[in-house]
Structure formats: structure tokens, C-alpha cells
Specification:
Largest sheet: 4 strands, mixed
Order of helices and strands: EEHHEEH
Strand order of the largest sheet: 3-2-1-4
Structural class: alpha+beta
Distance between the termini: 14 Å
Length: 95
């Protein structure tokens, strides 16, 4: 699957890693609901770090359709709320 990190590019990631990323996504939603800025920032950083660790960056000139779109590392809570799936699943829907 292809994951786009806004402002950074795309990463190819095995779907087998979705369960691990979903746990971080759930923690991110909890921190957002609490309005905890530092907690939100810590979990968002951890989520993006794991995507980079587990995935393989695509070349800058590659334009593949993205299966997931994640916020940039400096995104605000409000910006991330706008990216949340309509069904309330978080950034990683359906896992």
C-alpha cells in the first residue's frame, strides 16, 4: 500500500503493518479528544516515525495513488481533525 505524508512524499508500506499503526492512530484520537497538545504531538511523531521505519520511500518523481494520507509532522490538532475519516475511525480507517 502507498502512504502519503503531507509535505514529505510517499512511502510503500506492507499492509501487515496496519494493525500496529492503528494502535498509534487510536492513541492519537484519544489525545486529540483530550485536547492534549504535547500528547498529540508525541503520538503523531511516533506514528510518522513508524511509517518511515517500516516503509520504503518512493522516489520524488513517483506519483502513485495513495491508499492513506497522513498529516505532516507539524500539523495542528485542528488540521488532523479535518483529515479524520467520516466514520470516526481515525486516520487509518477500517482496521
Amino acid at each position: 500500500m502507498i502512504v502519503r505524508i503531507m509535505g514529505e512524499g510517499q512511502v510503500a508500506l506492507a499492509e501487515s503493518h496496519l494493525a500496529e499503526l492503528d494502535k498509534l492512530d487510536e492513541e492519537l484520537v484519544v489525545e486529540m479528544d483530550k485536547g492534549d497538545g504535547p500528547g498529540f504531538r508525541r503520538i503523531l511523531t511516533a506514528l510518522l516515525h513508524r511509517v518511515h521505519e517500516l516503509g520504503e520511500p518512493l522516489p520524488d518523481d513517483a506519483l502513485e495513488p495513495s491508499d492513506l494520507i497522513l498529516p505532516s509532522p507539524d500539523a495542528t490538532i485542528e488540521e488532523v481533525r479535518e483529515l479524520l475519516s467520516d466514520d470516526g475511525d481515525g486516520l487509518i480507517p477500517g482496521t
